[in-house]
Design goal:
Layout (H helix, E strand, L loop, with lengths): L3 E8 L4 H7 L5 H11 L3 E5 L3 E2 H4 L6 E7 L2 E5 L13 H4 L6 E8 L4 E8 L2 E8 L4 E6 L6 H4 L22 H13 L18 E9 L11 H7 L5 H6 L6
Antiparallel strand pairs: 1-5, 1-6, 2-10, 3-10, 4-5, 4-10, 6-7, 7-8, 8-9
């Protein structure tokens, strides 16, 4: 399971998991176009691709995108926000999608966050460490009740003392529960034997450079790359740059 996650999901499909199961390969051309749209002040160069098991929480100089019919995931440090409501407008609804979800956590910090927009309109956000709530905006959802009721308490390490102000749930688990509710899978473990897992969700990777400082991608223009690699075009080329994950 990834130790850090900073992901944005743009959803129009009624069943995101079904889409991800039926389309194991993302659209690399659409991913590259979106990467450039979201980073207009940077040069965007295709890099290693892989799955969410490895790339759900990338470094600041990278972005990982999976474009599927009605489902798009963007993994970027721009989603790792202490206050999700400060997400830049460009990232809230770049694709005019029906639903936008933010899911982020860092296990080393005991921090987790999630947020929800409907047609670009804010609905709900939460962000906290184990003892400090950083943001709690909008109406809590029904699925949150068991967590607030203490049904999923923090599991302390042997010898670890509980802080008297500790929340009744572990924030990364809370964020992962939001992911399960909205997207139908968990980053942290499986909730059923046949559940989708992060290593089954492929994304295309891109490196971000200051304008004018990117290395030359290829002497051949994009159409020539597509012809060289067959009908899957850029995807075939990207597969040659994949990192095993």
């Amino acid at each position: 399971m990834p130790s850090t996650v900073s992901s944005l999901w743009y959803i129009d499909a009624p069943d995101p998991v079904a889409v991800l199961r039926d389309h194991p390969g993302p659209d690399p051309e659409a991913a590259w176009a979106l990467a450039r749209q979201l980073n207009p002040e940077r040069d965007v160069v295709p890099a290693a691709s892989g799955t969410l098991k490895v790339w759900a929480g990338p470094d600041p100089e990278s972005i990982y995108i999976g474009c599927y019919p009605g489902v798009t995931v963007v993994c970027s440090t721009q989603a790792a926000l202490p206050k999700p409501t400060t997400l830049p407008e460009l990232l809230v609804r770049p694709l005019a999608s029906e639903h936008t979800y933010l899911i982020a956590y860092d296990l080393s910090l005991g921090w987790g966050a999630f947020a929800q927009w409907e047609r670009g309109e804010f609905r709900r956000s939460f962000s906290s460490t184990r003892v400090n709530i950083l943001e709690d905006q909008g109406l809590p959802r029904v699925w949150e009740r068991p967590h607030w009721a203490g049904e999923y308490p923090i599991e302390l390490e042997p010898g670890e003392m509980a802080d008297p102000q500790m929340l009744p749930f572990d924030p990364p688990d809370f964020a992962d529960a939001a992911n399960q509710e909205w997207l139908g899978f968990r980053y942290r473990g499986k909730f059923s034997e046949d559940a989708l897992t992060p290593d089954q969700i492929a994304v295309c990777g891109f490196s971000l450079f200051p304008k004018g400082q990117a290395p030359a991608l290829d002497a051949a223009p994009a159409p020539a790359l597509a012809e060289r690699n067959g009908k899957r075009g850029l995807l075939g080329w990207l597969r040659g740059r994949d990192r095993v994950s």
